Amino acid sequence: MKQKRSQQIKSILSLALLIPLLSACNQDENVQSQSNDQHEITLNLSMPANTGMETRATVAGTTEENTIKSLYLLVCDKTSGEMVTNAISCTVLTGAGTATQTSKATVPAGSYDLILIANASSQVGSLASGTAKTVITGLTYTKGTDKWDITGATNNTSIPMWGETKNVTISTGATVTIDMKRILARVNVKKSVTNDVFTFTKVLVYNYSRTARIVPPATDFAGVTYVADSYLEYNSYAADSPIYLFEAPSRGAYGAANWKQNTCLVVGGEYNKSGTVTYYRIDFKSGSTWYDLLRNNIYTIDIKSVTSAGYTDPDDAYKAVPTGMTINVLAWEDEKTINCDL
Predict the structure, then answer these.
(1) Does 315 have pLDDT greater than 90?
(2) 158 and 119 in contact (C-beta within 8 Å)?
(3) How confident is the model at residue 151 (pLDDT cuts 50, 70, 90)?
(4) How far is residue 28's CA from residue 24's CA, in Å, rounded to a whole number?
(5) I want to staple 295 with a disulfide (CB 3.0 to 4.6 A). Which of 170, 177, 178, 247 is the partner?
(6) pLDDT at 36 over 80
(7) How confident is the model at residue 57 (pLDDT cuts 50, 70, 90)?
(8) Separation CA 257–CA 251 (nearest Å)
């Protein structure tokens, strides 16, 4: 009887010792299964470029415009748009600052919509699995200081960018190409007139936007805030230097209640070597058509002629219907050529 009870106790002890081992095996199997379900993919980032209207040549972004300091991949359910993993931090491996850059990421097996967001780590770095698509499309970027300077001279800020590709099937070694779009517009002001006729001194940007959605919203310009009746000042402006702005909607034609609140430029300079700086308003318009200032577009404004002195006060020029200057505006990506006689 004692011997039988002793054997039962030994059997129970043996089973007790086996349970942790069995549990460890199950854990190992689960970890292995999860590991096998992850796939490393290559991300090819195609950086924004634009086509010039006059030459039809591709205008690649500058090194500063292409700089990526942070990069996050959002893996989203292709039906609900909800994130299925936490935001995945990525590193640019090759082509930094060029038109084609590569990175890698480890992603669960399946078919997903992939979103890449660059240079907005504060907004996207903490996004967790389960985040709704409405949260992603609601992310905004606000400029802490008003003027963008991406050269590093004073306030080095890399341009936020966004790209998305849908219904991507993930497998080991897969390569995914994503077209990136900058959330800023670029404005350049140059002149065809000689220095005897007109010389630049400064450019002022009135009614500039301070906030924009990182991912383009379904409703144009949702989340945009702007500073009305105030300006950014670019002193000693060098012709054809880039001015970076958040996108902004058109607010009405001359005579409308809000026409003055259109984002516009006021250019200051000397007419006919007078020694006096006067000012001229420039709007983004052609004839009766007013244009929105759109992300990832380049607007080149060419001063073709100046026929009279402008206003002595920039605010007076801002408040008045433009006069005394003929300009040509090239809006490159959307392929609109805008000619204005002011």
Answers:
(1) yes
(2) yes
(3) confident
(4) 6
(5) 247
(6) no
(7) very low
(8) 9
Q: Which distant-in-sequence residues (6+ apart) come within 8 Å of 54 by Cβ?
A: 330
Contact 306, 299 (CB under 8 A): no
Burial class of 42 by CB neighbour count within 10 A (0 to 12, 13 to 18, 19+): middle
215 Ramachandran zone, left/alpha/beta (phi>0; psi -120 to 50): beta
Amino acid letter for position 265 = L
Count of residues in the chain: 342
Structure pTM?
0.81
- CB-side neighbour CA atoms (13 Å) of 149: 11
For 294, residues 6+ apart whose C-beta sits below 8 A from its C-beta are 185, 247, 333, 334
Q: Do residues 298 and 338 touch, judged by C-beta distance below 8 A?
A: no
Backbone torsions φ then ψ of 176, nearest 5 degrees: -120, 125
Q: How many CB atoms lie within 10 A of CB 18?
A: 10
Same fold, 38-182 and 184-341: yes
Domain 184-341 has CATH 2.60.40: yes
The two three-digit tokens of residue 115, written as one number: 């979103």
Query: Dihedral through CA 105, CA 109, CA 112, CA 113, nearest 10?
Result: 0
Q: Max alpha carbon distance in the chain (Å)?
A: 122
Tokens, residue 90: 């990525």
Strand 225-226 with 209-213, pairing: antiparallel
Query: If we measure between CA atoms, which residue out of 73, 160, 162, 161 comes closest to residue 113?
Result: 73
Domain spans in the chain, listed from the N-terminal domain onward: 38-182, 184-341
pLDDT tens, position by position, 259-292: 999 999 999 999 999 999 999 999 998 777 788 8
Of the options 1.10.150, 2.60.40, 2.60.120, 3.30.420, the CATH number for the domain spanning 38-182: 2.60.40
